[in-house]
Write a structure and sequence with these properties.
Distance between the termini: 24 Å
Largest sheet: 4 strands, antiparallel
Strand order of the largest sheet: 1-2-3-4
Strand content: 25-35%
Low-confidence stretches: 1-6
Order of helices and strands: HHEEEE
Number of helices: 2
Number of strands: 4
Shape: elongated
Mean pLDDT: 76
Radius of gyration: 16 Å
């Protein structure tokens, strides 16, 4: 499992490096697969930040959930930071 993950990260890093030399940014590579609620920005040449806000307007669940992923696949070791937020207070704990 770890070997497959490392292989995937290596391939992603190579694709991003190749894209950067071909005048494509990391966001150009991932943007076609992003949902409409998401945006992509680039703090560095071979890294990207995805930010999504999904609004739920339901009788039992009325909230906006935000997701932010800071992805640095070419860093040694590769790094992904994930933040999940909600606008409403929920009195539930997630184990």
């Amino acid at each position: 499992m770890v070997a497959a993950t490392m292989k995937s990260v290596s391939i992603l890093c190579l694709l991003l490096a190749a894209s950067a030399t071909a005048s494509k940014s990391a966001c150009d590579v991932v943007r076609p697969d992003l949902p409409k609620e998401c945006k992509c920005s680039e703090p560095g040449a071979l890294s990207f930040v995805l930010e999504c806000d999904v609004v739920f307007n339901d009788k039992f669940f009325n909230d906006t959930i935000g997701i932010k992923a800071d992805v640095e696949p070419c860093k040694d070791p590769a790094d992904i930071s994930l933040d999940i937020t909600g606008t409403n207070r929920h009195d539930r704990e997630i184990p």
